Amino acid sequence: MATVHPNRFPTVAAPISRSIAFLVIVGALLAGCSERAARITGNERLHRGTAGLGTTSTGDTLVDRDTAVPPLATPVRGATLLVGLRGTYEARSLFRTASWVLPDSNDATVGIDSVFFRVEFDSLVAEDLPPGGTRYSLSAAGAAWDTTNVAWPDPPIGTFLGDGPDALAPFTIDLGSGVFPLVRAWARDPSFPGFVLYLDPSQGVQGVRGFRAGTGRIEIVYHHMVGGLSDTTKVVTKLPTDMSVHSPLPPLSGSETALPLGGLFRAETIFRGPVAPPPAGYSINGAKIVAHLDPTVPVFPSDEAVEIKVYRIRNAWTEGVAADSGLGLDTTPLATISAYRVRSAGDSLVVLIPPSVAREWSLNPAINQGVLLRVTDSFLHPEIRLLSRESAKPPVLRISTTTPPPERF
Predict the structure, then answer these.
(1) What would the pLDDT profile of 143-189 be if each residue is shown by its tens digit?
(2) 8 Å CB contact between 39 and 366
(3) Topology (CATH) of 50-71+252-402
(4) What is the DSSP letter of 16?
(5) Other Cβ atoms closer than 10 A to 375
(6) pTM, to two decimals
(7) How far is Cα 336 from Cα 362, in angstroms, rounded to an integer?
(8) Measured in whole angstroms, how far is the alpha carbon of residue 378 from the centre of its chain?
């Protein structure tokens, strides 16, 4: 029995000791249960694979259709103008103005010294140029052209005006003073179609040269009397409307063992591979197209890389398709490869396909029309060639699937 002292609470020692012992025993039991639960959960996760989702495996399926196509249009508009020849490729640049600047026609002392066509070089493009310089020709365009719908080989080449070597910057063609009456006629005629700059095939010269868009101009150098003295000056007419147009990619036979991607022709490569429905309970968690490079493709310089955009194709197509215009491409890329480089002859190109798209294709094969690959500003970079399904190392569609998880313990 407890003893009560004045002004003090009663003490109960024995019950408190028993309570502490009980709590220690319960805590030990709970700790043991927690450790056992953790072991069970860990064993179950280990049994079910990574992240407890089952076993993941991959399988390759050969693509059943592939080809290369040219872009919808052969004109090129941008910061670079192209002129030249290489094999079956030919590019010309077009220039035009709606407003001319001429010497004062009321000044009877004006004498025309010369008329020049000038444009700045673009050092980003200088493909296979021969040593010793190349002569480029300028002619009037033989017909009107529009930047929105002109296509090779239009516009035709009209009246020859002159040529000049690419020895010094800026590139210059001296048209002489005798062309000035023509210049005045062009200035009075709002329908004048402008100029064509090209490499004359009769020279037998190969090579492609780049020029900077927005820098084409006609300079008229003249002299006139000022205060009894002859003063030489010039006026400049800018040619702000400019673009390039090039010959299209030659049609493919269907038996090629390598498909072009990018390069001067701006070739686009398309692939389609079947996606079989996975077994019941399995899930598709990844897909990629793996295409091997033609071993003859040159290695990229260490400071060069390309951007490749991947577009989903919505319309049915065959390997005889002539252009990308009828493919029903999505406006937004499915994926982007931001910096691809050819590092060695044994390289491959891997294109990731979102798992959700691969699942759609497996559920409805009719909507699986594959993807198109497009290189951004490809004429600035070497052409890539991918081995086709007719080659010894055909491209494959690699699908990653995961088994259903086993029953929990």
Answers:
(1) 999 988 898 999 999 999 999 999 889 999 999 999 999 999 999 99
(2) no
(3) Jelly Rolls (2.60.120)
(4) H
(5) 23
(6) 0.80
(7) 23
(8) 6
